[in-house]
Amino acid sequence: TVLVRVQGDPAAVASEVRRVFRDVDPGLALFGVEPLDQTLTTSLARERFTMLLLGLFAGLTMLLATLGVYGVLSYGVQQRTTEIGVRLALGARPGGIVRMVMRQGVGLLLMGLAVGSAGALLLGRFIAGLLFGVTPHDGWTFVAAVAVMSVAALVAAYVPARRAARVAPALALSSK
Fold first, then answer.
1. Contacts 24+ apart (CB under 8 A), 24-30
2. Could you give the 3-state DSSP secondary structure of residue 172?
3. CA separation (Å) from 149 to 4, 53, 123?
4. 4, 30, 72, 125 - which has most CB atoms within 10 Å?
């Protein structure tokens, strides 16, 4: 392998490089004359594709987890509409209803973070070969993942919590 530093366009110099090597040794098999950035792109294509897939799956996992929290809490709020209506009719403040539903969301979040963190710690070694500049058990990476998932879950929990706080007591009590 020979690297040649050139100024300007490397493709324009390729024929000159071939000529120089033929002059030095006419029997030398010369192939793969290409710019270094093309060589790097070709050699890293598999790793980049793997990282792209991992990133897409991570994003899909985040979306599914967020939708799961939202779905479970929305279903719970729907099932408890009468109870929430009674609470509001008896003087509960909407902020208290929001806090009640958000507490449920935080409970789901904490369970998910515990299971997910344990899984990441146990399975992290399987992706160690794909990581560059970070270890499978990097603390800052864990903190960032927990923070992002926490924000997503809290936003997902806030929507049904606000909906629960807006339940009209008269309608909630008359619907059952």
1. none
2. helix
3. 47, 19, 19
4. 72
Tokens of 28: 């030398």
Residue 128: partners with Cβ closer than 8 Å, 6 or more residues away: 135, 136
Q: Which two tokens stand for residue 44?
A: 């890293």
pLDDT value at position 176? 56
38, 73 contact by CB (below 8 A): no
Q: State the Cα–Cα distance between residues 103 and 76, nearest whole angstrom.
A: 13
Distance CA 76, CA 102 (A): 12
Q: What is the pTM of this model?
A: 0.69
